Amino acid sequence: MTEQTEQPPPTSPAAHTRRTTGTSPALTPAHRSAASRAGAADGALRGAVPPAGAAAGDGAFGGTAPGAPTPAAGAARGGGNGGPRGAGSYSPAHPDLAAHEGRSHTGAGTAAERGPAPVTGLRPLGLTRRWPRSFADRLTSPLPGVRAMARLAREGALRPAAAGLKDIPQLPFAPGTLPEAEPGTVAVTWAGHSSWIVGIGELTVLTDPVWSRRILGTPARLTPVGVRWEDLPPVDAVVISHNHYDHLDAPTIARLPRRTPMFVPAGLGGWFRRRRFTRVTELDWWETAELPAGSGVGSVRFEFVPAHHWSKRTLTDSCHSLWGGWILTDQRGRQVYFSGDTGYGHWFKEIGRRHPDIDLAMLPIGAYAPRWWLSAVHTDPEEAVQAFEDLGARNMAPMHWATFVLSSEPVMEPIRRLLTAWEHTGRPREQLWDLPVGGSRVLTA
């Protein structure tokens, strides 16, 4: 049964506090089995030393702040990381995390040549941390008000017209065999919406897993899940972008072993701990954690990066947890960027500046109409292509379409507009990974 209501998270003090005790363990090589990998992760979790120092999914409640991205009210007030900042101009908690900023987009070389960039300020796995009660100062556009809600109710613009639904049979669905997780392989499989199976560093990572047939406030899926749950390999980690129902699905999460490593936004850890997950790592923007690679040699890096969005799961918890995307980096320095939900804005250039060697960017192209309601938090296809160019990534994989009806554009419009926008860039067609639901592709360079 789809979860209908939840208790809001408990109030936390306004300032961050971090534990600073423990000893650094010597990680033993992890075997290929999921149990052995989990054991290696346990060692890091127990002993790593910290560095010194009625809201439905995005469619039903809008999931959005209407209007073009503008600085939120209250800009330049203090934030949870101890320094003054304004909405849309957040500075990292650790200045040394900007180590990549001086790197150029030119002359990047192949992943094998560059290797993973050094990172300082690495966060321990599973650390319990205190966060501000609200992350509203991170908004880049104000949340919808009474007038916007009234207009939405008056116009009834949450679903496509009948003509926009007639192309449902054309939605791409072609499930296939998952790629073999061979050493050195980076592979992605689109399960639908924002759910991906990412094979990286000999680990299997799920992004925003939603295997339910329907989510609160929306019709049933337009296409089945691209990979049956029983066909999944052992899951080594899960990344969550934010807490909206179409990205954080309680019935799907309940299927996972409670020892599965969870990488989640700041302020969302309590939701998982209340469900007895024991390896929950909460990160702020630009913070990083690592899991031992499946081979036991090296690690896979998980970095939480900003997005233009918001969070809400109950009537009383707007922006009580953070939102963002993830960059996964393997031992050879190959990088996969999963944006989560986001509108278009300045963060893409900043992410590209810090990570000039992104090999694959998974970006949303659907749930964008009407624009007066959704432009601040969901990119349309043309904006997604512009975001890809801002990132300086090598390949793009579209997502967040062809699965749930969350907005009013015709169901096939996102991919048609995307193909047109891509053609206008003059980029090679093979760099656009427009996979069907259930489709896979392997990074070969």
TrEMBL record:
Using the UniProt annotation, give all residue ranges assigned to the region (Disordered): 1-125
InterPro entries found in the cross-reference section: Metallo-B-lactamas, RibonucZ/Hydroxyglut_hydro
Stretches of the chain forming a coiled coil according to its record? none
* Ranges of biased composition (kind: Gly residues): 76-86
Q: Which residues form the Metallo-beta-lactamase domain?
A: 192-400
Q: Which GO terms describe its cellular component?
A: cytoplasm
Among SMART domains, the record links this protein to: Lactamase_B
PANTHER family linked to this entry: METALLO-BETA-LACTAMASE DOMAIN-CONTAINING PROTEIN, N-ACYL-PHOSPHATIDYLETHANOLAMINE-HYDROLYZING PHOSPHOLIPASE D
Protein's UniProt name: L-ascorbate metabolism protein UlaG, beta-lactamase superfamily
